[in-house]
Amino acid sequence: MSEPSDEEASATTGEEPEKPGEPEKADPEAATGKSEAGEQKPDSDPFEAFAPVPEAVPGRARRISTRVATGAGRFLGHEWTLAAIGSVLLAALMTWPTLKHPASTIPQDIWDPTLQAWQMSWAGHVLTTDPAQLWNANAFFPNMYGYAFSDTLLGYAPAGMIGSGPVAAVVRYNIIFVLIFALAFFGAYALARQLGAGRTGAAVAGAAFAYAPWRLGQAGHLHVLSIGGIALALAMLARGHGFSLTKGYEPDKRRWGWVVAGWLVAAWQISLGFGIGIPFAYVLLGIVLITAVLWGYRHVRVWAVSRPFGWKLFLANLGGGLAFAAVGALMAYPYLQVLKQHPYARRSEEILSLFSPPIQGFFISPPESWLWGDAYASARQSLTWAPEMALLPGFFLYGLAFAGLFVSTWRIRHRVYLGIGVVVSIMLAMGTRGPGDGEFGYLALYRALPGFDGIRTSGRLMVWTTLFLALLAAGAVSAFARQAVELFADRTQTDVGTRAGFWPRFATLIPLVLVLIEGLHIPYPTNPVVPKAPLAMSTLQGPLMVLPTDELTDMNIMLWSTDGFPQMVNGGSGFTPRGQEQLRLTMQQFPDEASVTALRDLKIRTVVVIRSRAVGSSYERAIDAPIDGLGLDRTEQGDVVLYKLTD
After folding, report:
1. How far is CA 591 from CA 144, 514, 620, in A?
2. Could you list the residue ranges that cross the membrane (predicted)?
3. 379 exposure class (CB count in 10 Å sphere: 0-12, 13-18, 19+)
4. What single string gives the DSSP state of each residue in 370-396?
5. How far is residue 383's CA from residue 278's CA, in Å, rounded to a whole number?
6. Residue 348 in contact with residue 155, Cβ under 8 Å?
């Protein structure tokens, strides 16, 4: 008999025949584990009839660790984290060997750096013991406001609260010395990025601002090197206002918190010293006035343009500006008192002329430059005061900035503004050697604006010339980088965002390397070793006087006094009180009746003579001169000859 067809079989079983090409239907018993009668099949899991197998849920500890790891990865891989870490590592390398022996050596020389190490130590000490006496330092006794005889570095007071004594002061100074270069690089990098530069261009701006050759000659002046807060504050303020040079004002990017942070950083910057802070304050004031006028004009007169500002942003600027002004006023008060008590401390126009650099000074490097130092040795001899007149910002920087006038990420009008900034800042930095012997430049500011009469070195306005040049260079390098990547992508038919753009991007690092090479200092055999304090200094009570005494020697003595901070006549800075100067002359005959009488009048009961320093000096007589009938007791403690005035 023949087999039934598919149709006949379906008629017999009641099932539809399978059509060619269709998949087989799933077995309901295989899907449910049950037979048609509803009975459980013996080889299936009995619990699957009630619920699926639950998924494994990680525990709380694992969830927390995963979140922490993810957050840490994002933080460490963020551009700003990498920029900050890179800034510190680069600073440690570029300032080497500062951190090689941080407890016993100090950069540049043993004079101004030891004074500034004392300044940080005094601020940290007095703010934790007797803040009301901040300005009446232990040095320059019996003068009041001795802490305001020079720029104070008050903003570094938190660091001064860590540790005590001369060794801690030197370690603290060396660490801050490295970090200020890192902050200068990071601040300029952040500013260039906020204004619209690419990463490579911003890195060039940071390197140019932090490691310009002229700054090598200022390595002993921490208050001059501390400029990172300027660039960082401008970057924060620009970010808070949603402003960039490439896109202009973007109201949707306003952030009042960044505005407040920018003003606070600016206030911190001015607390480091007025030599750099006063011009910065006037630049901020100028930016505020110009921005307000331009915004008001466009908002009121150009009706088609809507430029919302908002109360939050207004209040943030008002509050931040008032905080900045308050810090400036509190800092200015003791300096005004110094001028009131010592009118001769005011910087005269003759002093300005002494330190005003000629135009060729902007093309001459300091001797500390590894690349250009020896080449310009003869040129520096033509400068009357080379340490303040060798102001080369870098020939590579000049070239990149010049290129930035023609090819740049910035708009043409912004390039023009930056170029004008370079020219004007150089004219002002020339002081009395500027146009019209300074009558149309620095002298006009000196006579018209409060505070400028306290700045003796106009050449330090080179800070602003360097910043303008750095931004022009950043615009040029950013444009070169973008064009190089786009050209490479067109030729290789690849996307600019792929790895194919690595090599053209890598090539644009060449300007960065060139700028850093110009910023290298000569390879010091060692940084100078800081003189150790005599053991007797740690046990003496003030008021006292240490011999020999002069402006430079007293800077070392101020550092030694950080172990206890006894009151003392000694003190060195950019300003010498006449009373101190007269006492120094009188003490050249110590011990005699006139010098002892002068000491008694000032209630000074202790005189310390350092034998090794007194030999061959004007104070050599104090080592072993007769003391009969003078009311003095003399003892010797190692290298120290100690005198006590008796009743």
Report:
1. 27, 60, 11
2. 80-99, 171-192, 199-216, 222-244, 256-274, 280-297, 309-336, 390-409, 416-434, 461-481, 502-524
3. middle
4. TTTTTTTHHHHTTSTTHHHH-----HH
5. 26
6. no
Alpha-carbon torsion (363, 365, 371, 377), positive or negative = positive
pTM above 0.85, yes or no: yes
Identity at 83, one-letter amino acid code? A
10 Å CB burial of residue 27 (0-12, 13-18, 19+) is exposed
User: At a CB cut-off of 8 Å and minimum separation 6, what does 61 contact?
Assistant: none
Burial tier of 387 (Cβ tally within 10 Å: 0-12, 13-18, 19+): middle
Q: How far apart (Å, rounded) are the C-alpha atoms in residues 285 and 277?
A: 12
> To which residue do tokens 């006009």 refer?
444
For residues 603-618, one letter each, b for 16 or more C-beta atoms within 10 angstroms of the residue's C-beta and e for the rest, the string is: ebbbbbbbbebbeebb
pLDDT, tens only, 226-255: 999 999 999 999 999 999 999 988 889 999
Structure tokens at 635: 């003892």
User: How many residues would you count in the chain?
Assistant: 647
Backbone angles phi, psi at 252, to 5 degrees: -70, -10
Q: What is the pLDDT of residues 44-84, one digit of tens each?
A: 555 455 556 566 677 777 777 777 777 777 777 789 999 99
Q: Which pLDDT score is estimated for 53?
A: 58
Contact status, residue 147 vs residue 133, Cβ threshold 8 Å: no
3-state secondary structure of 558: helix
8 A C-beta contact, residue 219 and residue 94: no
Q: What does the pLDDT look like over 138-177, one tens digit per residue?
A: 999 999 999 999 999 999 999 999 999 999 999 999 999 9
The amino acid sitting at 403 is: A
Q: Tell me how far apart the 2 most distant CA atoms of the chain are, in Å.
A: 154
Pairing of β 248-249 and β 243-244: antiparallel
- CA pair distance 499, 488, nearest whole angstrom: 11
As beta bridge partners, residue 645 has 632
Q: Give me the amino acid identity at 167.
A: V
CB 432 within 8 A of CB 438: yes
